[in-house]
Amino acid sequence: MGYAAHLALADADLSAAAFKLFHKMCGIQNRKDHGLVIVESQTKFAEQVGMSQSSVSRALRQLTDQGFIYADGRNWRLRADFVFNGNGAAQGQAVQNIPAGTPDPYAGKGADLTVIDGGNDSGA
Fold it and tell me: Whole-angstrom Cα distance, residue 9 to residue 51?
């Protein structure tokens, strides 16, 4: 996870449960299908990550609403331009497969900043 991704996660309005779940998902993602988190059932998934089913449900909604993950059938996928295990070519392909309309986690608080021309780089 790069610097911008860390900042986006730090600036996100996530509950402690959502933050915890995201990191657990990073740890259990499928290594052969980069970023895929396989979910047999939400009950078993909650047991696997050591959280209550209601906490997992709310955390998944928060992570989805803010664009850190998205549904892939009944499974979940970590956003490939945020966190990825694999080479650059595979990551580039995975980024192209992010569904249209998925929220952008990088468009958080810093998106409201405007660059203003001017200034003096001479240090005077």
Answer: 20
Q: What is the distance, to the nearest Å, from the Cα of residue 24 to the centroid of all Cα atoms in its chain?
A: 12
Q: Which residues contact 14 (CB under 8 A, 6 or more apart)?
A: 22, 59, 62, 63, 66
For residue range 66-84, list pLDDT tens digits in order. Answer: 999 999 998 999 988 888 7
pLDDT tens readout for residues 22-65: 999 988 888 778 788 989 888 999 999 999 999 999 999 999 99
pTM for the model: 0.78
Place of tokens 């979910």: 39
Cβ 15 vs Cβ 59: under 8 Å: yes
3-state secondary structure of 51: coil
Rounded to whole angstroms, how far apart are CA atoms 30 and 24? 12
The label of the residue with tokens 């052969």 reads 32
Whole-angstrom CA distances from 112 to 107, 108, 109 are 8, 8, 6
